[in-house]
Amino acid sequence: MNAKTVLITGASKGIGASIAIKFAKEGFQNIIITGNKSVNQLNDLKRLLKQDYACTCHSFAADLSVYENVKRLFQEIKERYDGVDILINNVGISHIGLLTDLSVDEWNQVIHTNLSSTFYCSKLAIPHMNHQKCGKIINISSVWGIYGASCEVAYSASKGGMNAFTKALAKELAPSNIQVNAIACGVIDTKMNQFLDEEERASLIEEIPANRFAKTEEVADLTYDLAKGHSYLTGQIISLDGGWF
């Protein structure tokens, strides 16, 4: 059993839920999961982790794009667990459409949800990690943060910012034995991609050398691998895209 505490944001479904299950399967006892709109799914996951893996799971339902909510989250963490040893910044939303049709509010929502929440959570997690002289911050990013996607400018900008954030923060925290890395996901088989019809899915799969979409469990496996060791690996944007780019 592992007594370290892991925080996974955006864990009510998809990649985040798979990451939470992976850590529970591997014996982590202190797991914190957050969600916003899918509260029922978040609570279902909490019950699953407790019943199937006998871990201590704390759920927190709030919009992490708001700093005051993140402060409340970390106050609860301090009271229950003292601090976070492994932070996985996974919460994210997308917006598809022309930039000229994108409203200021929609832009702000994507940037604050995907990028500002990463800053907020990292800012409040780092003091405990510094005190312990160890820690892991793993940011779930996207290949669009490297290459950009037409009609997904806000999403691409937020993930590009996350990648730069990862590289810069890794240099800042390396002397404290805290590693910061990001996983740049390709096409993962989640609800975020369910807007694609069968023809569009087939066409996209043809572009990917691995000839398929990735499973959320594969992202979880890589996330866990980064979390459990590799003390000299930091500041890296690791593409998980089946050879797409």
Structure description:
The protein has one domain: Rossmann fold, CATH 3.40.50. It has eight helices and seven strands, in the order βαβαβαβαβααβααβ. The protein has a seven-stranded parallel β-sheet with strand order 3-2-1-4-5-6-7, sandwiched between helices. Helix 1 runs parallel beside helix 2 and helix 4 runs parallel beside helix 6. It comes from Candidatus Galacturonatibacter soehngenii. Belongs to the short-chain dehydrogenases/reductases (SDR) family. InterPro entries: NAD(P)-bd_dom_sf (IPR036291), Sc_DH/Rdtase_CS (IPR020904), SDR (IPR050259), SDR_fam (IPR002347). Keywords: Lipid metabolism, Oxidoreductase, Steroid metabolism.
